[in-house]
Write a structure and sequence with these properties.
Elements: H1 3-17, E1 23-26, E2 32-38, E3 49-55, E4 66-73, H2 81-93, H3 101-143, H4 149-162, H5 165-177, H6 181-187, H7 189-211, E5 215-219, E6 222-226, E7 232-235, H8 240-244
Antiparallel strand pairs: 1-2, 2-3, 3-4, 5-6, 6-7
Helix pairs in contact: 2-3
């Protein structure tokens, strides 16, 4: 096999296929070049991308080319470069004896797509899991402990004790047994009789004071009455002769 011819012919074909993207780095002693690959969605700001760098050996394609990965984008904590290199080596072994760079580039492209799909799926699963956990936590916060009749009665009893309700009820019961002054007055008939007697005697005494003067005299056409209580009562327009009769 003319290795130089095979290698030169493949480089020319690859340059036509990846025109504008393929970069030839060296031609001596063997061709060395890079071809960019990227996953779907990378142009939208997501996805994975890198450059595959191939270097021919003296017996390529009967030997595997030297493969390197350069200019990785979004590989951190997502892609293990060694896994990609292992995958490409396995694909190359299946194509020994034939030019294989196009096959390896396609395999690398597919691997990035599959890897990125896994990354997106895992990311979505994490988001859904977090949403579910948040929803469950929210439900638990509102649901709380399920209430039974027994648990409610026990809670109410303790609540009333904490609020001092039983003691308040006892005080109210005692207060109900106490009579107000009005109730005492209405219930005690002796008080009624004594009060009425006091009112009757007082009224009679007052009338006697007014109608039974102990001393009177005519003053400016008026009669001045002096009663035993010490205050004066004047009666206007009363004829002293009529009153004395």
């Amino acid at each position: 096999m003319d290795y130089n011819y095979e290698q030169t012919s493949e480089v020319e074909a690859l340059d036509s296929i990846y025109f504008g993207d393929m970069t030839v780095i060296e031609t001596k002693p063997f061709h060395k070049f890079s071809i960019p690959i990227k996953s779907e969605g990378f142009d939208d700001g997501e996805g994975l991308a890198c450059h595959l760098v191939f270097t021919y050996t003296s017996k390529y394609p009967d030997e595997l080319p030297i493969i390197e990965i350069d200019n990785e984008e979004n590989f951190d904590n997502i892609v293990d470069k060694e896994e990609l290199l292992t995958h490409l080596a396995e694909q190359g072994k299946e194509n020994l004896g034939m030019v294989m760079v196009f096959t390896l580039v396609s395999a690398g492209q597919e691997w990035l797509n599959e890897t990125w799909d896994k990354v997106k799926k895992e990311r979505e699963e994490r988001i859904l899991a977090k949403q579910k956990a948040d929803e469950e936590a929210e439900l638990k916060r509102f649901e709380g402990t399920r209430v039974t009749v027994e648990s409610f009665l026990a809670w109410r009893k303790q609540f009333e004790i904490d609020m001092g309700i039983p003691a308040k009820r006892e005080r109210e019961a005692k207060d109900k047994n106490k009579l107000t002054g009005r109730e005492l007055f209405l219930q005690d008939t002796t008080l009624n009789e004594s009060d009425l007697k006091f009112l009757d005697d007082g009224a009679l005494f007052f009338l006697l004071c007014l109608t039974q003067p102990s001393n009177s005299q005519k003053m400016d056409g008026h009669i001045k009455w002096t009663n035993p209580l010490g205050f004066e009562v004047k009666r206007h327009d009363i004829n002293l002769t009529e009153e004395m009769q």
